[in-house]
Recover the amino acids of this structure.
């Protein structure tokens, strides 16, 4: 177990994959801050509804010896801000619900929020970047960054290039999660070995573009492509 | 699987487009049917051309969008035009609607319907000039919005803009699909 490494998680399959991979790699955080109040939120599947995923996450964490704090789903709620503020650790892994942005109140708690972004920064900021990279015939991958007040503008502390997904492969719930999990484990290993994350590099404001959620028609073309 | 992104009034009910389901070829074919039907409906709208002569700029946003369009015409790009368009791209993507003015308190009202065909035309021209898929992406969403309230047209100029934007969108989607080996005719 890694003391003073927290995990702030929405009740999503990605959070569960993160947690299982960290536990299997003996890189278990000491606390799970579980943001779940049973609502059906972006990033969940039908079978995760009504608290099902939250219960799985909680039992996985408890089985691994972690403390679990149940919190509302809103990452900017007072309860979440206070819980994070009171936590003595310096680094918190963040795996929230789709579309949720961390506001000033939680960013000002003095923690570093480690987020695994889908897409290779600084070129691909924003959302659903794997689809855009496929359509642009660019490399696919993930980036580890420390969240700041901009959209994916924080310090990049790690990157992982990946093979492109197979045509027809489930990108949202398989490829994307697997890729991000792999990079997260690499990053937490760095904390475990060196006591902190690599320095990484700040992004320049003018670098890259912000990509917005992909329209389903373009998403279909990216998934069904036959060119690799 | 059907293309159901134009069924509800998107000026009233925001469509998030998050984690959308996958429906293989049938979905893309239904998308094409959706656009063909919308185009036919627009062509059959009974709106007299003279009304467009009475159009006055409705808002600060419309004025700014007209400036952007002027900066994109004649197959060349004024550098400021794309920079300013980036702001409107973000604003639309965040709220899936545009306000009459930004950075004012209390927040301004939303723009009238006629501004969306103008925005669609700007995105069409931008996509043709740059081939930046982000413009095609937002154009698809703006066209979904327009189609979802297709009875709101009151000006011929808006109808013509919307039809042209639909043509550009469908041609762009087909070309992109073809480039990636996806059959879409």
């Amino acid at each position: 177990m890694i003391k003073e490494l927290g995990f702030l998680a929405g009740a999503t399959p990605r959070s569960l994959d993160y947690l299982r991979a960290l536990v299997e790699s003996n890189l278990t955080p000491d606390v799970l801050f579980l943001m779940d109040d049973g609502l059906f939120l972006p990033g969940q599947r039908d079978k995760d509804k009504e608290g099902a995923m939250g219960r799985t996450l909680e039992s996985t964490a408890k089985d691994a010896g972690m403390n679990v704090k149940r919190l509302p789903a809103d990452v900017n709620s007072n309860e979440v801000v206070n819980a994070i503020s009171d936590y003595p650790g310096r680094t918190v892994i963040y795996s929230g619900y789709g579309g949720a942005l961390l506001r000033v109140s939680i960013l000002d708690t003095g923690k570093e929020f480690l987020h695994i972004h889908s897409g290779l920064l600084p070129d691909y900021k924003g959302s659903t970047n794997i689809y855009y990279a496929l359509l642009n015939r660019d490399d696919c991958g993930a980036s580890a960054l420390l969240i700041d007040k901009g959209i994916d503008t924080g310090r990049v502390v790690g990157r992982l290039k990946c093979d492109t997904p197979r045509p027809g492969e489930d990108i949202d719930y398989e490829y994307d999660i697997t890729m991000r999990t792999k990079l997260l484990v690499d990053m937490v290993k760095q904390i475990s070995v060196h006591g902190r994350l690599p320095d990484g590099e700040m992004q320049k404001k003018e670098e890259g573009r912000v990509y917005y959620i992909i329209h389903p028609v373009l998403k279909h073309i990216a998934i069904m492509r036959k060119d690799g | 699987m059907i293309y159901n992104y134009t069924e509800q009034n998107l000026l009233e009910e925001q469509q998030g487009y998050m984690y959308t389901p996958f429906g293989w070829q049938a979905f893309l074919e239904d998308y094409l049917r959706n656009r063909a039907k919308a185009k036919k409906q627009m062509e059959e709208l009974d709106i007299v051309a003279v009304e467009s002569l009475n159009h006055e700029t409705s808002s600060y946003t419309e004025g700014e969008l007209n400036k952007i369009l002027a900066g994109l015409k004649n197959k060349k790009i004024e550098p400021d035009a794309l920079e300013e368009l980036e702001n409107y791209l973000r604003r639309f993507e965040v709220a899936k609607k545009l306000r009459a003015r930004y950075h004012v308190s209390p927040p301004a009202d939303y723009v009238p319907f006629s501004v969306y065909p103008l925005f669609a035309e700007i995105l069409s021209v931008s996509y043709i000039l740059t081939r930046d898929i982000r413009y095609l992406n937002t154009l698809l969403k703006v066209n979904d919005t327009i189609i979802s309230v297709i009875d709101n047209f009151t000006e011929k100029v808006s109808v013509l803009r919307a039809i042209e934007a639909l043509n550009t969108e469908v041609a762009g989607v087909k070309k992109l699909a073809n480039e990636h080996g996806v059959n879409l005719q």
